[in-house]
C-alpha cells in the first residue's frame, strides 16, 4: 500500500477518524496496532507472520530485561538472545541467497532452489525487514541499559507492537529508538495536532516524491540499460547521473517527510531523517544529514562499541571502513552495495586522517568548493544503486563512456533541470541560511510560505509522475 495511492488515502482517513472518535479513543493504541498490521499485510502478505514473530520475541526479551532484578549475567544472556535473534532473521531473509550465489561462484555443482523457503526469500524480500530488525536490536540494548520504564507484560507487548509496526515508519524508516517512542505512547487529543507543521511536512513529502522523484524516474531509468546508455552518449549520461542523485534524495526524503507528517497527525513525533544532505562540506557531515536515524544507529550500536575514532589512526580507519561496509550491505544483499559502503568508508577514513593536518579557510567560496566535491563523490557512488549486481560494473562504465562526442539533448536536459530544480533550490536555501543568511526575512513571511506550499501542492496534483514504489522499499 503506497503512500502515493488512493487506497492509502482511504485507509489513513479511516485510521485518523478512529483515532479521535469519542467512542474509540480508549482503544487508540490497539487500533493503531491493528491498522499497522493490516497495512503491512497489504504489502507484505505471508511475511506478516514474520513481523509478528519479531514483535513477540523482542517484546518478551525486552520485558524481562527491563523487569528482571537479576545479576548482570542474566541481562547479558537476554542481550545476546535479542541481538542474535534479530541478526539471524535479517541474515536469513536478506543474505541467504547472496551467500548461496557467492559459494556457487566457487563450486558450480551447487544448485539454486526453484521452490521452497529459500526461493521465496530470494525472490520476495520481506518489506521493511532491515528497519524493524535494527529497531529490535536497539530495543533490546536500550532495555538492558534501562533507558525507559518497565510496565506490565500485556502493556509492554502492546507498546512494542506499536513501536515496531507503527505504519508511518514501518516500510522505509526512520529507525526509531524505544527510549524516544515508548514515553509518547498514550491517549492523544485532536486539539494537540500542530496543523502548520503537519501540512508542511506532508505537502513537501508528496511534492518531492510525486513531482520530483516520479518524474525523474522516467528519464533516469535508462541508466539501468546498457543499450540506452550507449545511445545517449557520455554527456547526457552524466546529466542523468546527477538527476538520479536528486531523484534518490527526493524519493527517500519524500517518504520520510510524509511519514513524519502522518505520525504527527496521529499524535506521535518521529525524527527527521534528512537535513539538506547535499550541502555537506565533508563525508562525515553528509552522514550527519543523510538517513540520520541509520547513521546514529550505526554510530551508537556498532562504531562506538568497536572503539570509535578515539584510538590509533589505523584502528579508527578500520572501524570506519568496517561499519560502512556493513551499512552498505544493510542497503542491499549484493556486492555492489558492499562496494558502495567500502567507498564511503575509505572516504571517511581518509578524511579522518587528514582533518587535523589540513586547515582550510572558512570563506564561503571555500565552503562552496568543499560542498561541490562532496556532492560529486556522493553522486558518483550512487552508481552502485543502479547495478543489478557487481558483475554489471564494467559493462556499465563501458556503455556510460561509449560515445563522448554526442551532444547534449536539449529537450531531455531541460526537463531534467525542470524536475530537479526544486531540490537544488531547497539545498541552496539551507546553504544560504547556514552561511550567507541573505533574504531570511523574506522567506519567513507567512504569505511567502503559503505561496510556496500552494505551488508545491498544485504541481503535485497536476504534474505528477508515474506512481512508482519508493526506492528504499527494497531495503
| Average predicted confidence as pLDDT | 89
Task: Output the number of helix runs.
Answer: 23
Q: Strand percentage, roughly?
A: under 5%
Rg value: 23 Å
Q: What sequence of helices (H) and strands (E) makes up the elements?
A: HHHHHHHHHHHHHHHHHHHHHHH
How far the N terminus sits from the C terminus, by CA atoms, comes to 16 Å
Q: Outline the biggest β-sheet.
A: none
Number of domains: 2
pLDDT < 50 runs, ≥5 residues: none
The 3D shape can be described as globular
Number of strands: 0
**Residue share in helix:** over 70%
**Quaternary form:** single chain
What structural category arises from helix and sheet content?
mainly alpha
Verbal overview:
The mean pLDDT is 89. This protein is globular. The protein is mainly alpha-helical and 475 residues long. It has two domains: 6-192, no CATH class; 196-462, no CATH class. The longest helix has 32 residues, at 234-265. It starts with 5 loop residues before the first helix and ends in a 13-residue tail after the last helix. Helix 3 (48-67) packs parallel to helix 7, helix 11 (195-220) runs antiparallel to helix 21 and helix 11 crosses helix 23 (446-462). Helices cover 70% and strands 0% of the residues. The protein has helices at 6-20, 28-44, 48-67, 72-94, 96-106, 116-123, 129-144, 153-165, 167-170, 178-181, 195-220, 226-232, 234-265, 283-289, 292-306, 313-331, 335-354, 364-381, 383-386, 393-400, 410-434, 440-443, 446-462.
Amino acid at each position: 500500500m503506497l503512500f502515493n495511492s488512493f487506497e492509502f488515502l482511504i485507509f489513513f482517513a479511516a485510521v485518523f477518524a478512529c483515532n479521535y472518535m469519542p467512542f474509540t479513543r480508549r482503544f487508540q493504541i490497539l487500533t493503531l496496532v491493528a491498522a499497522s498490521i493490516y497495512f503491512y499485510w497489504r504489502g507484505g502478505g505471508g511475511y506478516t507472520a514474520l513481523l509478528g514473530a519479531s514483535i513477540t520475541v523482542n517484546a518478551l526479551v525486552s520485558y524481562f530485561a527491563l523487569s528482571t532484578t537479576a545479576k548482570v549475567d542474566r541481562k547479558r544472556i537476554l542481550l545476546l538472545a535479542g541481538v542474535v535473534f534479530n541478526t539471524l532473521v535479517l541474515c536469513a531473509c536478506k543474505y541467504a541467497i547472496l551467500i548461496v550465489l557467492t559459494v556457487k561462484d566457487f563450486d558450480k555443482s551447487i544448485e539454486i532452489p526453484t521452490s521452497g523457503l529459500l526461493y521465496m526469500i530470494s525472490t520476495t524480500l520481506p518489506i521493511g525487514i532491515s528497519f524493524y530488525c535494527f529497531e529490535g536490536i536497539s530495543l533490546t540494548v536500550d532495555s538492558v541499559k534501562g533507558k525507559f520504564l518497565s510496565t506490565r507484560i500485556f502493556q509492554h507487548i502492546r507498546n512494542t507492537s506499536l513501536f515496531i509496526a507503527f505504519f508511518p515508519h514501518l516500510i522505509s524508516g526512520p529507525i526509531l529508538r524505544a527510549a524516544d517512542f515508548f514515553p509518547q505512547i498514550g491517549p492523544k487529543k485532536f486539539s494537540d495536532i500542530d496543523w502548520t507543521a503537519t501540512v508542511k511536512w506532508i505537502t513537501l513529502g508528496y511534492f518531492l516524491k510525486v513531482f520530483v522523484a516520479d518524474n525523474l524516474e522516467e528519464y533516469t531509468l535508462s541508466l539501468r540499460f546498457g543499450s540506452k546508455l550507449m545511445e545517449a552518449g557520455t554527456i547526457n549520461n552524466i546529466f542523468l547521473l546527477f538527476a538520479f542523485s536528486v531523484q534518490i534524495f527526493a524519493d527517500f526524503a519524500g517518504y520520510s517527510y510524509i511519514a513524519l507528517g502522518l505520525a504527527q497527525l496521529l499524535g506521535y513525533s518521529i525524527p527527521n531523517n534528512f537535513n539538506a544532505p547535499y550541502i555537506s562540506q565533508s563525508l562525515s557531515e553528509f552522514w550527519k544529514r543523510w538517513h540520520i536515524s541509520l547513521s546514529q544507529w550505526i554510530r551508537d550500536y556498532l562504531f562506538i562499541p568497536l572503539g570509535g575514532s578515539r584510538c590509533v589512526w589505523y584502528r579508527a580507519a578500520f572501524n570506519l571502513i568496517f561499519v560502512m561496509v556493513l551499512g552498505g550491505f544493510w542497503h542491499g544483499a549484493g556486492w555492489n552495495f558492499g562496494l558502495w559502503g567500502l567507498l564511503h568508508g575509505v572516504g571517511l577514513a581518509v578524511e579522518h586522517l587528514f582533518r587535523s593536518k589540513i586547515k582550510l579557510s572558512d570563506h564561503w567560496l571555500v565552503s562552496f568548493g568543499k560542498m561541490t566535491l562532496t556532492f560529486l563523490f556522493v553522486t558518483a557512488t550512487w552508481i552502485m544503486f543502479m547495478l543489478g549486481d557487481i558483475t554489471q560494473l564494467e559493462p556499465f562504465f563501458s556503455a556510460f563512456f561509449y560515445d563522448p562526442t554526442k551532444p547534449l539533448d536539449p529537450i531531455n536536459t531541460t526537463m531534467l533541470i525542470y524536475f530537479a530544480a526544486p531540490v537544488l533550490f531547497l539545498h541552496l536555501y539551507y546553504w544560504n541560511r547556514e552561511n550567507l543568511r541573505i533574504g531570511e526575512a523574506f522567506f519567513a513571511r507567512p504569505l511567502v510560505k503559503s505561496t510556496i506550499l500552494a505551488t508545491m501542492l498544485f504541481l503535485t496534483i497536476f504534474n505528477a509522475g508515474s506512481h512508482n514504489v519508493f526506492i528504499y522499499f527494497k531495503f
